[in-house]
């Protein structure tokens, strides 16, 4: 029996990760930690978790028989939640992005190296059966030499269908808006160039780092940023190690209730490949893979599996076999570094560390 502890009690833990873990045979969730002790206790009670804590170190001191820890919290908490676990040599699964700054991400990777603990990052798309098949086909030369690719993520209603998971969402009441101050106040000053750059980096790592990870997983690491444009959408043209030039189109003007719009297209010397994704939280909606060659179109069927569940299965399998994660901290740090290069190319002359 694998013995796990959790960090974070928010909606993503409630809607996705806790139900997935509870459905797995041979997995026991012993404890949950959240800085909001009341929320943590309510979530633990709803999902049958025996013990709750308000601090990661407190939990580690009390729970001496853990096999691993799952961290599903805001990126600003990843370093403070993961490093104490890594320093004790325990394996960690944390949601993307790796951290909120490059310095924190490097510290997490350094902690894992120093202790030998395994650090896995939750890029669930890389565990999607269609994505894995696309990786296999591309590596096997199904398209010949890939010359160009287009990674398009306009977003939309990403929580479509999540209410069908059958879980209870326990959220704190929304705070009341502050009362407007008496009298007129001067408008705030416009953001500085450094503030705009920091804001852009935060958007890339929070929203579109999945697409950056897909780009580097399918086409090789980003070797050169040819062009970068900030705005709506954000546009980047990059040359990858595999030789392809890749256009990333991120974050168009769709309202949040729009149909989810996310695709990857690869154009090779002997064919074309496309992946069409559904909303991330929508279950029973497999990603479609299409391969077009001169002889016709192939739509492979890989069977059905939930990407979020498959990444946790992979983490648990890693714990049982002493294996290594296929999406590790060093990969996630490379994704953050690629985001920084995209942002720096669009904001030349800025010097503050990201």
Overall tally of structural domains: 2
CATH class of the largest domain: Alpha Beta
As a percent range, the share of helical residues equals 25-40%
The unreliable regions are none
Characterise the protein shown here.
The protein starts with a strand and ends in an 8-residue tail after the last helix. The protein has 2 domains: 2-117, Rossmann fold (3-Layer(aba) Sandwich), CATH 3.40.50; 126-168 and 199-303 and 337-346, Dihydrodipicolinate Reductase, domain 2, CATH 3.30.360. The protein has helices at 11-22, 37-47, 56-62, 78-87, 102-115, 129-139, 193-219, 307-321, 329-346; strands at residues 2-7, 27-33, 51-53, 68-71, 92-95, 119-122, 146-155, 222-229, 234-240, 245-250, 261-268, 272-277, 288-293, 296-298. Helix 4 (78-87) runs parallel beside helix 5 and helix 7 (193-219) packs across helix 9. Strand 9 and strand 10 (245-250) form a beta hairpin. The chain has 354 residues and is of the alpha/beta class. The protein has an 8-stranded mixed beta sheet with strand order 8-9-10-7-11-12-13-14. A 6-stranded parallel beta sheet has the order 3-2-1-4-5-6, sandwiched between helices. It contains 9 helices and 14 strands.
